[in-house]
Amino acid sequence: MSPPPDTPWDVPPDPVSPLAPDGTAEETAPDGGQRRRRRTALAAVVAAVAAAAIVILVLNLLPSGDGGHPTAAPSTGSSTRTATASPSSGCVPVHYKTADGPADCAALSDVCALGAPLYTPDIDKLCGQAPQASIYVANTGDPRGPDGCLVLDGTGWATGTVDYKGTGRAAADCNGWIDRTAADDGGIPLKSCQQIYPHTRTTFLATLQTPGHRTTTACISANSGA
């Protein structure tokens, strides 16, 4: 026997949507477009926060001057020749003959050259011990000092050739003078020379060799003008 029509169990239930807190029906499954929009908005927020953090980090790492502003790079403008003079720059501050002589700036090779009248208190530190010159005397077998005039053939004393002109010559005739030799010292080879201008290479020790193959040590002072 069939149950009478319209009984409670024959009536389909009325679907009830869950209510949102405001009493309206709530969506239970947002569509794909809404999800993508939410993810895009979230990614934009994260990117903005990260960019701000990077800017803050970079500003904190920059050196600061007054008021926290980055300081400018130091100026590399040129300075005076005296301030920059040094062996590493190819220029040594010197004076002519003495500490109170005219000031100049010269190449280290010129300062250290035998016969150079360039004064610097650091000459031994800059140049090391002066080498002993080896000079050939072309025209005599018996050069002697003191004040023996030498005429240099060439420009360098270190391994130069000279003509010996004896004593009593005018300064204009001589490139240098023999201050003394081993013969003047009783035949004992010379080991050092007294400097006419200390802290220069004006006076130097040399071995003189003559055409007769005689050798003697000598102290020579270069003629460097007034």
In short:
The protein has 4 helices and 9 strands, in the order H-H-E-E-H-E-H-E-E-E-E-E-E. It has 226 residues and is α+β, with helices and mostly antiparallel strands.
If you had to describe this structure to a student in words, what would you say it looks like?
There is one protein chain. By secondary structure, the chain is of the alpha+beta class. The protein is 19% helix and 21% strand. The strands form two sheets. The chain has a six-stranded mixed barrel. A three-stranded antiparallel beta sheet has the order 2-1-3. The chain is rod-shaped, with a radius of gyration of 48 Å.
Mean pLDDT: 75
Helix content range: 10-25%
Q: Which stretches are low in confidence, meaning pLDDT under 50 for 5 or more residues running?
A: 1-30, 64-85
Number of helices: 4
Question: Roughly how many Å is the radius of gyration?
Answer: 48 Å
What's the total count of β strands?
9
Strand order of the largest sheet: 4-6-5-7-9-8
Q: How many strands, which pairing sense, and closed or not: the largest β-sheet?
A: 6 strands, mixed, barrel
Q: Tell me the distance between the termini.
A: 151 Å
* Shape summary: rod-shaped
Helical/strand content category:
alpha+beta
